[in-house]
Amino acid sequence: MTQYAAIAGIGQTEFSKNSGRSELQLAAEASLAALQDAGLDPADVDGMITFTLDPSDEIGLCRCLGVKDLAYTTRIPGGGAASVATIYQAMAAVNSGIADVVLVWRAMNERSAYRFGQPLVPPSGGVVNVAGNGTGSLLWCMPFGAQTPASWEALAAQRYMEAFGVTNLDLGHVSVAQRRHAATNPRAWFYGKPITLEEHQQSRWIVEPVLRLLDCCQESDGGVALVVTSLERARDLKQPAIKIQAATQSIPAEVEVISNYYHGDLTMMPEAHGVARRLYAKAGMRPEDMQLAMLYDAFTPQVLRQLEAFGFCPRGEAKDFVKGGNIEVGGKLPVNTNGGLIGEAYIHGMNNITEAVRQLRGTATNQVKGLERALVSCGMAGAILTHA
Amino acid sequence: MTPTPEPQAAPTRPDPVFTPDAAFFWEGVARGELLGQRCSECHKLVHPPRPMCPACHSVKRETVKLSGRGKVYSCVIPRHPAPLGFAEAPLVALIELEEGIRLVSNVIDIPPASVRAGLEVEVTFAPTRGGKAVPVFRPRQGARP
Q1: Using one digit for the tens of pLDDT, what is the confidence trace for A174-189?
Q2: Which residues of A touch B76 (CB under 8 A)?
Q3: Sign of dihedral through CA atoms B62, B66, B70, B72?
Q4: For a 10 Å CB count at each end of chain B, is N or C smaller?
């Protein structure tokens, strides 16, 4: 019989622009909330996973929570590409028997303490490390004035947009839909603040002619945590178990995170195509089976290329797919129903996973009716979550 | 008081970062040469540089002088926040060289807004604040934007 892992608990802090406390405290608060949500004691935790980039230390977090005897830790490289990979690795740890209860966390004061949106060139030269491993080629960008994640993303996205005639106005439909979701989500920074296409078009250029301000995710302070355990154990816990039906990573040759200019065809996202191929095969599912897609949305063009990679529309047609309410609750494929990293908060992708869990539990603010299967993707990793 | 002549502005562009496997590239640029890395065994040309050939696994590598000619593959203008070290917003471009490798660079000597993919360009060099240099590109003689 196939073993499955499940997400048994989720937790988070408030999302803000100035948390007023340490990143370790955010990590501890979010972790404790996730464990309490699951009905587990910190002493039950025997595995811990986060991003290579996370500033909090495993042992420091154990000391806060009172974790008694950790059996397994690992960290995932690649900035936000680590987000969905954390639950993939947690699943692998649980299914292989090396850990029973795995705590996944990501916590940062990314607005109040440092800002990913500012030029990442230290005065002494070199590069501020924003993505952990996996982005060595950022070195090749800095002396040319490409010094922010927005400029790195835009340089690749421009080729995609030119190839398929995608305009910045087309991208605006993604922002408008996600901000509509955020507007009715009290956890979202942009709660009560929807935008119009006109407002999108009036927002200033960040990187011309690709990204305006309203195409970019937020800079946020906050923490998010999840608890992964076996499906069998999760069924006995406090919350409805959310099954990890399948999860995978894909890093094709010459692909790297964000300064991703050296693979064959920049009009696509080969890593997401790789994830899609492997994920659907493992799950025995097809794009039509997905009823919700939580797609890493640091910048709007990433949403378009993932929609195409995961087969929701043919290549080059995402610019039309995102129009007419298709990606809103009630539409053909609701996308980023919490508002995403653009509308809710930028907790490096992790808050998009917890939204999928809430949706499958039936407790989301912008609830998708009759939901049974959800896709979560960060480009280089993906998972299909289902009812147990 | 007679006005003193404006001094020649010192370069403000950030320096490139020399890493062990890419030092040859920046040393070449400092001499006014655009160099690529080729495998000594199977002659595969790669960029970014790396210590092992992905095709034949040889660690023997040699530098090869590149044509310096290519086409704009994609291009953007970072507006906000203003890039550090640039008085005017630069045109950041991916240049696909004739040899088939891509470089992140700038296109100069042309209004940024008029650069399009496919523009034929040739290499030149720009100084950086620490006395180093980087390869940048300008429209090729006779090439139209």
Answers
A1: 999 999 999 999 999 9
A2: 146, 151, 154-155, 158, 207-210
A3: positive
A4: N
Rg of the Cα atoms in chain A: 19
Reference A44, options A100, A82, A127; nearest CA is A100
Cβ of B74 within 8 Å of Cβ of A266? The answer is yes
CA dist., res. A301 & res. A342, Å (int): 12
Domain residues of chain A, as ranges?
5-112+218-387
**Annotation: CATH topology of A5-112+218-387:** Peroxisomal Thiolase; Chain A, domain 1 (3.40.47)
Domain annotation for chain B: domains and CATH numbers: 18-65 (no CATH), 67-145 (2.40.50)
Residues B127 and A67: their CA atoms lie apart, in Å, by: 54
The complex's ipTM works out to 0.93
User: What CA–CA distance (Å, rounded) separates B19 from B23?
Assistant: 6
- Which of B12, B15, B104, B134 has the most A C-beta neighbours within 10 Å, making it the best mutation to test the interface with A? B104
pLDDT value of position B5 = 57
pTM for the whole structure: 0.95
